Each structure stands twice: as structure tokens, then as C-alpha cells.
Amino acid sequence: MSTPLFDPGLQPERTALAWRRTALAIGVGSLIALRVLPEALGSLVWLTPAVLGLMFAGWLWWRADRRYRVTTRVLIERGDHAALPGGALPAALLGFVVAAGLLALGVVIAVALGR
């Protein structure tokens, strides 16, 4: 009888915690933007990116939890060499970060040019 190589509490749990920290950081950054951007730029239009950031943080938290449960179930049922969930979650995070960076660049340019 061989001992399974998978320990259900280690790697998947650390990865889930990292995704949760990422979602929390995006949520806190969005709340700060919700507070700072309208005062700094004088427009309520800047509420939209902050609200979208909060919604993305909630979605990211939910998907990370789901990914953790699927990964754990697959590793328990099939072992260490099973196919794990794909890269949709990191790709979504990359898209969000690129969009937020472009928006921040636009804000800096708008402020520098005097709106």
C-alpha cells in the first residue's frame, strides 16, 4: 500500500489564501478610489471604476473559493498527476490589472494636461 503524495491542507490552501489576499487588496484599492477619485478629480464618473473594482473583487473571491474546492476534490480523487483547473482566473486578473493600469495612466495624463 502506497502513501498518497497529496496533503489536502498545504498547497491548495496556500494558493486559495493568496487569491483571497489579492481579492481583498483589489477591494480595498477600489474603496480608496471610491473615496479619493471624486474629490481629486471632481466628477462622479470616477465612481464607475471603483464600483467595477469592488464587483471584480467579489467575483475573484468567489472564483478563488470555487477553484480551491475543485482543485482539492480533483487531487483527492485522482492523485497528484491529475489535470487541474485551467488558467482562466489568472487571465481575468491580468485583464483587470491591465485595464486598471490604463485607466490610471489616463487619469495621470488628464490631471497633467489640466483635464
From TrEMBL:
Provide the DUF202 domain boundaries: 7-68
Q: Per UniProt, which keywords does this protein have?
A: Membrane, Transmembrane, Transmembrane helix
Q: How does it sit in the membrane?
A: Multi-pass membrane protein
User: Major location, coarse class?
Assistant: membrane
Which compartment or compartments is the protein found in? Endomembrane system
> Does rRNA-binding show up as a keyword for this record?
no
- Give the source's domain of life in one word: Bacteria
- What parts of the sequence cross the membrane? 44-62, 82-113
Query: Can you say what this protein is called?
Result: DUF202 domain-containing protein
Source species: Microbacterium aurantiacum
